[in-house]
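Onboarding guide, step 5: your first structure request.
Type a short instruction followed by the sequence, for example:

Predict the 3D structure of this protein.
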Amino acid sequence: MGTMTIDGRKVEFTDEKNVLTVIRNAGINIPTLCYHSEVSTFGACRLCTVEDDRGKTFASCSEQPRDGMVIYTNSGRIKKYRKLIVELLLAAHCRDCTTCVKSGECILQELAHRLGVRDIRFENTREQHEIDDSSPSIIRDPNKCILCGDCVRACEELQGIGALGFAFRGTEAMVMPAFNKKIAETQCVNCGQCRVYCPTGAISIRTHMDEVWDALADKNTRVVAQVAPAVRVAVGDHYGLAKGRSVMGKIVNALHRMGFDEVYDTTFSADLTIMEETKEFLNRVEKGENLPLLTSCCPAWVKFITDQYKEYVPNISTCRSPQGMMSAVIKEYFRDPEHAAGKKTVMVSIMPCTAKKAEAIRPNSFTDGEQDTDIVITTTELLRMIDNFGLDFATLDPEACDMPFGFGSGGGVIFGVTGGVTEAVLRRLSPDHSKEAMHEIAECGVRGEDGIKEFTVPYKGMDINVCVASGLANARTVMERVKNGEANYHLIEVMACRRGCIMGGGQPTRSGDRTKAARARGLYNADNTMIIKKSDENPLVLELYEGLLKGKEHHLLHNEFYIKE
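The system replies with structure tokens like these:
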């Protein structure tokens, strides 16, 4: 506890880790390009520099607060300093802003406008570098990199991958994969967190919007969309609605208005996933084989295991992800000439995740050699398509999803938050359908933002040890403990992105702590309003098992790709 003077006002502080946080808590938005509270302090951009009463300047992000400090955040000297920094960054930066994919969302562009940078006095002498488009999920443009190191720290510290790093020194410094390899040649898992942390267009989503527009324009094509749970709580605030509010009904209306023939809810196939994964889990527990069961919903996590923990490949659930199950079922449904009505079916998946783009083209996601998910677009791309079409999203009336795949349980809805898959499995295992039982499951330790959660639940006379992790660096910690015999689990759920799919690599960026919490709360609120809480209570799912899926469950809902490898 202490007091400092900021721009002539007394400000109290407690346990803030740096002066920057104290200043922002005082209502002054100090600009930064390289500071993120979830990764280590780098202090590279120097935009957060302030001045003390003795004329000393220092980066506020790396200075600990001390009682009695006197700080000036916007002295004439500091303003000139910040403006020069941005001018120098722009001098060595691609300035084709109007055609940049990040235009309007670029923090560097925003700061140039905010600080009044109108002229660049310095010549750009940097060599032009080739754009890396080798990844199915992201595009890397070195010409737009400002060397803030955000992507490097996110990849190393949050994800434990280290696919990117600094190379060379001084004016020759660059961010690149080791030995200047293509990003697809590294152990990149396509999670997109580098893109989330990048303040410019140096790393962006590999977009597939044009392919969707082309399909919508073809009168002989039936375009079907599936919408993931996490998407519905990340769209509204872009249009001035409350953060974390579920706007699924408005999304359905928007998609119908844009020309989609059918719009289905991925919570339906999340229910299918729970039905199949629970059955597989109980079978493994009974036989004592391939435990712990590793969930297979997150493609970045699956790639992480297949790349770095090959001995645990047999432990991965053979269940396809909800995206894979939904696409396979819909393609099978429209193979019936009566349903097809002479049209080709194009399956568009709307996901919070860049890694889903890689999953869609993975051979084991195909059925009989045919790609089930034709196009994957992220939440960010959906927003751009809605804006492109000119819809006033905030005023749209909500619409229901189409049948027969438009309804999921509350257990399917919470798939979008870390621990949601496990909670849905525990609901399925419980013979008690009461509200009290659902509340008891929610309070067992499965919820919360902790990167690693461990708990034990009783089931038919035995204790089931469960671990839930989000963020691949945390997942590595868990797997190392399992590998070294330090932990014994029956079930491990991992989402590659911290807090789960609500913070996926394809979600809108610039999400602070309030937005992150609001998105999780939005999914839990949606679950609270669902009449059906458990996957095995969904009548549409039960009907599907008695109809289209009968005798085809394994063929359409599972794969053996990992085991064969």
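Each response can be followed by summary notes, for example: The chain has 21 helices and 19 strands.
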